[in-house]
Write a structure and sequence with these properties.
Two copies of one chain form a homodimer.
Chain A (H helix, E strand, L loop, with lengths): L13 H5 L5 H20 L2 H8 L3 H8 L2 H22 L8 H14 L1 H14 L3 H22 L5 H21 L10 H17 L9
Amino acid sequence: MSTPTGRRRGRPPRAAAQDGAPGTRERILDAARAEFARRGYDLAAIRAIARAADVNPALVHHYFGPKEALFAAAVGAAVEPVSRRIAGEPLAEVTELGERFTRLFLGVWESQDTREPLLAVLRSALSNETAAAIFRRHVTDLLLARLVETLPGPDAALRAELAATQLVGVALARYVLRLEPLASTDVETLARRLTPAVQLHLTGRPDAPAGA
Amino acid sequence: MSTPTGRRRGRPPRAAAQDGAPGTRERILDAARAEFARRGYDLAAIRAIARAADVNPALVHHYFGPKEALFAAAVGAAVEPVSRRIAGEPLAEVTELGERFTRLFLGVWESQDTREPLLAVLRSALSNETAAAIFRRHVTDLLLARLVETLPGPDAALRAELAATQLVGVALARYVLRLEPLASTDVETLARRLTPAVQLHLTGRPDAPAGA
């Protein structure tokens, strides 16, 4: 978005960056995400993140604390647009949950803006135990909690996770591994194929219950 | 396994390793897998692999060629026990495919011996395009081809992939991210929960067709 009002936005000059100008925090987070994606959690270096963000390494620590906290902030930033969409969803009938959840998820992954930050933190979480612990806390608290509350019956948490793993598996195969024909299947077909499986996990039936 | 017969097995002395003793190839592959898992495909170094395998870097190249070929060999070694199990499966009725595929897959991932090599190459495939291309060729040719042949009707390849993504998603959440309650659910319960979703993808119905 352009900012014709002249307010300081985007990439400020170095001096401004050093004293906490608007955008510095975001720039550090962007750099952190890129470094976590490229080198994994273990090998990601605060020094390299600071260099990419054009700030002093001490400023990275000042804003975010140690590497774990910086990673948690990167996960939070990646998950935030998704949890905002979930919060903005009107309450769904149980019979619609599978389709709603599937379409919301595919929408998030179809857009590169929301996909790339998620992928970056997911890659780190898959290669390091500390990163995995941070990632699963965010996924459980911010992404699955509302779905779990909505589900009737026992085992709601397990059922929500089984539905989520279906969608994450598809996302990795489609957008990262680019397995064919999955990668070039149009998203509408994919939503129609996935909805019954997701609904089956969530409610025990692939379709709306008879008489509903 | 102990080798009381005195045949040369396991880790031979350095001189033996250099001239192609039995086990050298396997030791290089083990070292390669560990390096790919730890540092990812991009940052994995032939020199570090050679050091870990206690051989000259030239010998790694002599056995496997460039990094891509070494990675392909690591993928082949990881996938081989799985494709062997698939080949050993008796032909299944279509109504049993979901359960068979689910149980075979969970069996492979429950055992650390077969899980770790797969995870190592999967992690690299998720972080690098060259590695992803090698991985998907193996998955398509060695793991999904037989299932696809068995499936009736159109879209067999897409349906096999949707079923596989369900299982890979569960594997990553259970064995790597350790999402709860999924990680501590017993494998029998998991097989029962997953079978209908996998069967739904493979055949369009979560259970055996009426009258079958």
